[in-house]
Amino acid sequence: MTGTCWSVLMRTAELLGLSMRVTLVVVAMLCGSGPVVAEELPEGAVRATFEAKFPGVTIKQLSPTEIPGWYLVETDGAALEASILYVHESGRYVFSGGLFDLASGRNLTRDYVRRKQQEVLSALDLSKVILLKPQAGAQREPALRPIVVFDDPDCPFCRKFHPEVKKIVQAGVPVAVVLYPLVRPHPDAYRKSVAIWCAEDRAAMLDHALAGQPVPSPEQPCAHPIDENLKLGHDLHVSSTPSIFLPNGTLVLGHRSAEEILGQVRPNLGLSVGQ
Protein backbone atom coordinates (compact mmCIF):
# COMPACT_ATOMS: atom_id res chain seq x y z
CA MET A 1 0.00 0.00 0.00
CA THR A 2 2.82 2.40 0.89
CA GLY A 3 4.50 1.90 -2.49
CA THR A 4 1.24 2.60 -4.28
CA CYS A 5 0.70 5.72 -2.16
CA TRP A 6 4.13 7.08 -3.10
CA SER A 7 3.71 6.39 -6.82
CA VAL A 8 0.23 7.92 -6.99
CA LEU A 9 1.15 11.08 -5.07
CA MET A 10 4.43 11.55 -6.94
CA ARG A 11 2.53 11.37 -10.22
CA THR A 12 -0.10 13.81 -8.94
CA ALA A 13 2.58 16.26 -7.79
CA GLU A 14 4.24 16.01 -11.20
CA LEU A 15 0.97 16.91 -12.92
CA LEU A 16 0.42 19.83 -10.54
CA GLY A 17 3.95 21.10 -11.11
CA LEU A 18 5.01 21.00 -7.45
CA SER A 19 8.70 21.37 -6.66
CA MET A 20 10.62 18.21 -5.74
CA ARG A 21 11.33 19.55 -2.23
CA VAL A 22 7.67 20.18 -1.45
CA THR A 23 6.67 16.92 -3.14
CA LEU A 24 9.00 14.79 -1.04
CA VAL A 25 7.88 16.48 2.18
CA VAL A 26 4.17 15.98 1.48
CA VAL A 27 4.55 12.43 0.20
CA ALA A 28 6.71 11.39 3.14
CA MET A 29 4.20 12.69 5.63
CA LEU A 30 1.20 11.12 3.90
CA CYS A 31 2.76 7.81 2.92
CA GLY A 32 5.02 7.16 5.90
CA SER A 33 4.76 3.91 7.76
CA GLY A 34 1.95 3.48 10.28
CA PRO A 35 -1.47 5.09 10.51
CA VAL A 36 -1.86 8.84 10.77
CA VAL A 37 -3.14 9.94 14.16
CA ALA A 38 -5.67 12.79 13.93
CA GLU A 39 -5.80 13.61 17.62
CA GLU A 40 -3.91 16.58 19.05
CA LEU A 41 -0.31 15.90 20.00
CA PRO A 42 1.86 17.81 22.45
CA GLU A 43 4.98 19.56 21.20
CA GLY A 44 7.24 16.65 22.13
CA ALA A 45 5.10 14.24 20.13
CA VAL A 46 5.15 16.58 17.12
CA ARG A 47 8.94 16.56 17.30
CA ALA A 48 9.04 12.77 17.60
CA THR A 49 6.65 12.34 14.66
CA PHE A 50 8.68 14.69 12.47
CA GLU A 51 11.98 13.03 13.33
CA ALA A 52 10.48 9.60 12.61
CA LYS A 53 9.30 10.74 9.18
CA PHE A 54 12.58 12.50 8.36
CA PRO A 55 15.45 10.55 9.90
CA GLY A 56 18.72 12.45 9.73
CA VAL A 57 17.08 15.90 9.62
CA THR A 58 18.09 17.99 12.63
CA ILE A 59 15.43 20.15 14.28
CA LYS A 60 17.02 23.34 15.60
CA GLN A 61 13.79 24.95 16.77
CA LEU A 62 10.17 23.85 17.14
CA SER A 63 7.55 26.34 18.31
CA PRO A 64 3.80 26.92 18.00
CA THR A 65 2.63 29.49 15.44
CA GLU A 66 -0.19 32.02 15.58
CA ILE A 67 -2.37 29.44 13.80
CA PRO A 68 -3.91 26.97 16.27
CA GLY A 69 -2.58 23.46 15.73
CA TRP A 70 0.40 24.45 13.55
CA TYR A 71 4.07 24.39 14.50
CA LEU A 72 7.10 26.07 12.96
CA VAL A 73 10.03 23.70 12.49
CA GLU A 74 13.47 25.16 11.81
CA THR A 75 15.75 22.51 10.33
CA ASP A 76 19.49 22.48 9.84
CA GLY A 77 19.39 23.78 6.27
CA ALA A 78 21.84 26.06 4.51
CA ALA A 79 19.65 29.17 4.29
CA LEU A 80 17.51 30.11 7.29
CA GLU A 81 14.30 31.00 5.45
CA ALA A 82 14.55 27.89 3.24
CA SER A 83 15.07 25.69 6.31
CA ILE A 84 11.65 26.47 7.79
CA LEU A 85 8.71 24.08 7.54
CA TYR A 86 5.24 24.19 9.07
CA VAL A 87 3.80 21.00 10.55
CA HIS A 88 0.27 20.29 11.76
CA GLU A 89 -0.06 18.89 15.27
CA SER A 90 -1.64 15.73 13.88
CA GLY A 91 1.64 14.91 12.14
CA ARG A 92 -0.23 14.54 8.87
CA TYR A 93 0.24 17.86 7.09
CA VAL A 94 3.36 19.87 6.35
CA PHE A 95 4.21 22.69 3.99
CA SER A 96 7.26 24.67 3.00
CA GLY A 97 7.28 28.36 2.14
CA GLY A 98 6.28 31.76 3.47
CA LEU A 99 3.36 32.04 5.88
CA PHE A 100 1.42 35.29 5.46
CA ASP A 101 -1.13 37.04 7.66
CA LEU A 102 -3.38 38.72 5.09
CA ALA A 103 -5.21 40.75 7.73
CA SER A 104 -2.04 42.51 8.87
CA GLY A 105 -0.04 42.11 5.67
CA ARG A 106 2.79 40.47 7.59
CA ASN A 107 5.11 37.78 6.31
CA LEU A 108 5.25 35.67 9.48
CA THR A 109 8.11 33.54 8.17
CA ARG A 110 10.24 36.58 7.44
CA ASP A 111 9.37 38.06 10.85
CA TYR A 112 10.63 34.85 12.50
CA VAL A 113 13.82 34.89 10.45
CA ARG A 114 14.54 38.50 11.36
CA ARG A 115 13.85 37.91 15.07
CA LYS A 116 16.14 34.89 15.05
CA GLN A 117 18.92 36.79 13.33
CA GLN A 118 18.60 39.74 15.72
CA GLU A 119 18.66 37.36 18.70
CA VAL A 120 21.89 35.72 17.56
CA LEU A 121 23.56 38.98 16.51
CA SER A 122 22.61 40.77 19.74
CA ALA A 123 24.88 38.31 21.56
CA LEU A 124 27.80 38.98 19.21
CA ASP A 125 31.04 39.48 21.15
CA LEU A 126 32.73 42.46 19.49
CA SER A 127 36.06 41.37 20.94
CA LYS A 128 35.98 38.50 18.42
CA VAL A 129 35.48 40.59 15.30
CA ILE A 130 37.56 43.14 13.42
CA LEU A 131 35.65 46.31 14.26
CA LEU A 132 36.14 49.04 11.68
CA LYS A 133 35.17 52.31 13.35
CA PRO A 134 34.49 55.70 11.76
CA GLN A 135 36.94 58.46 12.51
CA ALA A 136 36.18 60.68 15.48
CA GLY A 137 33.26 62.93 14.64
CA ALA A 138 32.16 60.95 11.59
CA GLN A 139 29.67 58.73 13.42
CA ARG A 140 26.60 60.87 13.97
CA GLU A 141 24.72 58.37 16.16
CA PRO A 142 27.03 56.93 18.85
CA ALA A 143 24.52 54.17 19.68
CA LEU A 144 24.28 52.92 16.09
CA ARG A 145 24.89 49.17 16.01
CA PRO A 146 27.53 48.00 13.54
CA ILE A 147 26.81 46.29 10.27
CA VAL A 148 28.10 42.71 10.54
CA VAL A 149 29.93 41.30 7.52
CA PHE A 150 31.01 37.66 7.22
CA ASP A 151 34.17 37.68 5.10
CA ASP A 152 36.31 34.92 3.59
CA PRO A 153 39.82 36.20 2.74
CA ASP A 154 39.86 34.16 -0.48
CA CYS A 155 36.33 35.08 -1.57
CA PRO A 156 36.43 37.13 -4.82
CA PHE A 157 33.13 38.86 -3.99
CA CYS A 158 34.46 39.82 -0.55
CA ARG A 159 37.45 41.40 -2.25
CA LYS A 160 35.13 43.31 -4.56
CA PHE A 161 32.94 44.44 -1.67
CA HIS A 162 35.73 45.53 0.68
CA PRO A 163 36.25 48.99 -0.89
CA GLU A 164 32.53 49.58 -0.34
CA VAL A 165 32.96 48.60 3.31
CA LYS A 166 35.56 51.33 3.65
CA LYS A 167 33.14 53.86 2.15
CA ILE A 168 30.44 52.77 4.60
CA VAL A 169 32.80 53.32 7.54
CA GLN A 170 33.86 56.69 6.13
CA ALA A 171 30.17 57.65 6.01
CA GLY A 172 29.97 57.14 9.77
CA VAL A 173 28.65 53.58 10.11
CA PRO A 174 30.79 51.02 11.98
CA VAL A 175 31.33 47.60 10.41
CA ALA A 176 32.15 44.42 12.33
CA VAL A 177 34.01 41.94 10.12
CA VAL A 178 33.64 38.29 11.12
CA LEU A 179 36.39 36.13 9.62
CA TYR A 180 34.48 33.22 8.12
CA PRO A 181 36.59 30.89 5.95
CA LEU A 182 34.71 28.65 3.52
CA VAL A 183 37.27 25.88 3.46
CA ARG A 184 35.61 23.68 0.86
CA PRO A 185 36.03 26.12 -2.06
CA HIS A 186 38.99 27.93 -0.43
CA PRO A 187 41.28 25.42 1.34
CA ASP A 188 43.77 28.08 2.49
CA ALA A 189 41.12 30.47 3.83
CA TYR A 190 41.21 29.08 7.38
CA ARG A 191 44.98 29.59 7.66
CA LYS A 192 44.67 33.10 6.28
CA SER A 193 41.86 33.93 8.68
CA VAL A 194 44.01 32.84 11.63
CA ALA A 195 46.94 34.83 10.24
CA ILE A 196 44.82 37.96 9.90
CA TRP A 197 43.60 37.61 13.47
CA CYS A 198 47.10 37.03 14.83
CA ALA A 199 48.56 40.01 12.97
CA GLU A 200 49.69 43.02 14.96
CA ASP A 201 47.37 45.23 12.89
CA ARG A 202 44.34 43.09 12.01
CA ALA A 203 42.57 45.74 9.94
CA ALA A 204 45.69 46.34 7.86
CA MET A 205 46.21 42.61 7.29
CA LEU A 206 42.54 42.27 6.35
CA ASP A 207 43.03 45.02 3.75
CA HIS A 208 46.12 43.19 2.53
CA ALA A 209 44.31 39.86 2.18
CA LEU A 210 41.25 41.33 0.47
CA ALA A 211 43.52 43.10 -1.99
CA GLY A 212 44.67 39.65 -3.11
CA GLN A 213 48.12 39.98 -1.55
CA PRO A 214 49.94 37.04 0.09
CA VAL A 215 49.11 36.48 3.75
CA PRO A 216 52.06 35.08 5.72
CA SER A 217 51.45 32.71 8.60
CA PRO A 218 52.05 34.23 12.04
CA GLU A 219 55.46 33.75 13.57
CA GLN A 220 53.83 32.70 16.82
CA PRO A 221 50.43 30.99 17.18
CA CYS A 222 47.76 32.96 18.99
CA ALA A 223 44.32 32.33 20.43
CA HIS A 224 41.71 33.07 17.78
CA PRO A 225 37.91 33.01 17.41
CA ILE A 226 37.72 31.38 13.95
CA ASP A 227 36.07 28.18 15.16
CA GLU A 228 33.57 30.22 17.16
CA ASN A 229 32.92 32.32 14.06
CA LEU A 230 32.10 29.16 12.13
CA LYS A 231 29.59 28.18 14.80
CA LEU A 232 28.09 31.67 14.76
CA GLY A 233 27.71 31.48 10.99
CA HIS A 234 26.14 28.05 11.31
CA ASP A 235 23.61 29.41 13.79
CA LEU A 236 22.77 32.15 11.29
CA HIS A 237 22.75 29.69 8.35
CA VAL A 238 25.53 31.62 6.60
CA SER A 239 26.56 29.60 3.54
CA SER A 240 28.16 32.25 1.31
CA THR A 241 30.28 35.36 1.63
CA PRO A 242 30.02 38.22 1.92
CA SER A 243 26.92 37.88 4.09
CA ILE A 244 25.90 41.30 5.37
CA PHE A 245 23.64 41.70 8.40
CA LEU A 246 22.17 45.16 8.85
CA PRO A 247 21.52 46.48 12.38
CA ASN A 248 17.82 45.51 12.15
CA GLY A 249 18.70 41.89 11.34
CA THR A 250 18.09 42.10 7.58
CA LEU A 251 20.42 39.85 5.59
CA VAL A 252 21.95 41.17 2.38
CA LEU A 253 23.92 38.72 0.25
CA GLY A 254 26.81 39.37 -2.08
CA HIS A 255 28.46 42.52 -3.37
CA ARG A 256 26.48 45.73 -2.92
CA SER A 257 27.37 49.37 -3.32
CA ALA A 258 27.98 51.48 -0.23
CA GLU A 259 25.13 53.75 -1.31
CA GLU A 260 22.71 50.81 -1.34
CA ILE A 261 23.76 49.61 2.10
CA LEU A 262 23.63 53.10 3.60
CA GLY A 263 20.20 53.63 2.11
CA GLN A 264 18.93 50.57 3.99
CA VAL A 265 20.69 51.36 7.26
CA ARG A 266 19.72 55.00 7.59
CA PRO A 267 17.17 55.82 4.89
CA ASN A 268 15.80 58.83 6.74
CA LEU A 269 19.12 60.57 7.26
CA GLY A 270 19.92 61.15 3.60
CA LEU A 271 23.53 60.08 4.09
CA SER A 272 25.58 59.17 1.08
CA VAL A 273 29.18 58.17 0.54
CA GLY A 274 31.56 60.97 1.50
CA GLN A 275 29.21 62.75 3.94
Instruction: Say how many strands there are.
Output: 11
Taken in chain order, the helices and strands follow as HHHEEEEEEHEEHEHHHEEH
CATH homologous superfamily caption of the largest domain: Glutaredoxin
Strand line-up across the major sheet = 7-9-8-10-11
Keywords summarizing the entry:
275 residues; alpha+beta; Nuclear Transport Factor 2, Chain: A; Glutaredoxin; 2 domains; 5-stranded mixed beta sheet; 4-stranded antiparallel beta sheet; 9 helices; 11 strands; 16% strand; disordered C terminus
Written account of the structure:
With 275 residues, the protein is of the alpha+beta class. The chain folds into two domains: 35-120, Roll (Nuclear Transport Factor 2, Chain: A); 126-265, Glutaredoxin (3-Layer(aba) Sandwich). 38% of the residues lie in helices and 16% in strands. It has nine helices and eleven strands. The protein has helices spanning 2-16, 20-31, 43-53, 108-122, 156-170, 189-198, 202-210, 226-235, 258-265, and strands at 59-64, 70-75, 84-88, 94-96, 100-101, 106-107, 130-132, 147-151, 175-179, 243-245, 251-253. The model is unreliable at 15-28, 33-40 and 268-275 (pLDDT under 50).
